[in-house]
Specification:
Blueprint lengths: L6 H15 L4 H6 L4 H9 L4 E5 L23 E8 L2 E3 L12 E6 L1 H11 L5 H5 L1
Antiparallel strand pairs: 1-4, 2-3, 2-4
Length: about 130
């Protein structure tokens, strides 16, 4: 869910995924992925997504207790998934963030870079669980 609900941004992201699926090497590359995380990393490119675990003792702790619609993230990024415990769901603007939530954030390189600089990049959900 984009905090601003920018439908154009969501359409651009979906168009980018559709363009990737149409590439000739897509199937062979997908078949080399060993798990769902590798599929996600292949689909989203590491420079276009990050997983951010919310810790009270980390800069991300300032997000705990907020609703997504109240976040001030850079333009061009979208919180695509929230992992809470063993549950993974697509959030909306009213999603309330808890300690230890893992946010999967996708978007343009500039926006992701800003978030990386502010909060730090987690390489995968497995890393984020630590």
């Amino acid at each position: 869910m984009s905090p601003t609900g920018d439908t154009r941004q969501q359409i651009r992201l979906l168009a980018g995924i559709a363009e990737m699926v149409e590439r000739q090497e897509f199937v062979s590359n997908m078949l080399t992925c060993k798990n769902d995380m590798q599929v996600k990393e292949y689909m989203l490119h590491k420079d276009r997504f990050l997983n951010l675990k919310l810790h009270a003792s980390h800069p991300s702790g300032g997000l705990i207790g907020l609703n997504l619609k109240d976040l001030r993230f850079p333009q061009g990024v979208l919180i695509a998934l929230v992992m809470r415990g063993n549950n993974v769901f697509a959030p909306d603007g009213n999603t309330y963030l808890h300690a230890n939530d893992v946010l999967t954030i996708i978007g343009d390189e500039a926006g992701i870079k800003k978030l990386h600089e502010k909060y730090g990049l987690q390489k995968s959900v497995e890393d984020a669980r630590q």
